[in-house]
Amino acid sequence: MLRHLLAPVNLGAAQALGLPRRLPGLAGVALTFDDGPHPEGTPAVLEVLARAGARATFFVVGEQVQRRPELLREIAAGGHAIALHGYRHRLQARLPARAVREDVRRGVEVIGAALGSAPGLHRPPFGIYSPAGLDAVHDAGLRPLLWSRWGKDWRRLTTPRRIADRVLVGVLPGDVILLHDADFYSARDSHRRTAAALKIILRELTARELATVLVV
Question: Are 41 and 34 in contact (CB under 8 A)?
């Protein structure tokens, strides 16, 4: 279980479990967003991405998709990829195996009902897989993906500049960047700082000639 808990922040633990944090074959970097769709945060992020001509992968939460399926379709219509973050935003390590399996099943079902197609990727809440959770994801035909760069944008006492700096320091092709387009499970209005930080991040990636590459 310790390896599962370390995987989001420890390359060795992630490798031992077969959980990718980077995608070395990418020609650029992968922008990913967790926790949506959100009625304010998601449209704000989509607008910034559209202006920059950038694409991203959105790891959505099933219970939020049920509340606003039209927003999920808007994400997909913008040329972005949809992935599963879970039906509910709960730590897998605290759930029995049956509950984790049901969470994955319901999440896939809700996305399929909204889009007519199933997601291909999965990332668990907090980036932590339980052994049962990882089995459930594989059995559902999903591929796990963690991250290698994160802005820690969920924090209450942060700024767009700090978020951007965390993401950009040492960023390389193949890096997977984690941000959040919602504040359902984090500091109130954190999505506003994320949208502001995203402008800085995309501007700097362009200056470094690093493209944003879609991951599906």
Answer: no
- Structure tokens, 156: 């209450």
What is the tens place of the pLDDT at every residue in 58-80? Answer: 999 999 999 999 999 999 999 99
- What is the pTM for the complete model shown? 0.96
Is residue 122 annotated as part of the catalytic site, yes or no? no
User: By three-state DSSP, how is residue 179 classified?
Assistant: strand
H/E stretch holding 13 reads: helix 11-17
Q: pLDDT grade, residue 2 (50/70/90)?
A: low
Catalytic residue among 85, 89, 122, 180: 180
Alpha-carbon separation of residue 102 from 1, 78, 132, 153 (angstroms): 20, 30, 11, 29
Active-site entry in 4, 34, 80, 183: 34
Which residue bears the tokens 């390389």?
A: 172
Whether 34 is catalytic is yes
Helix (H) or strand (E) holding 200: helix 190-207
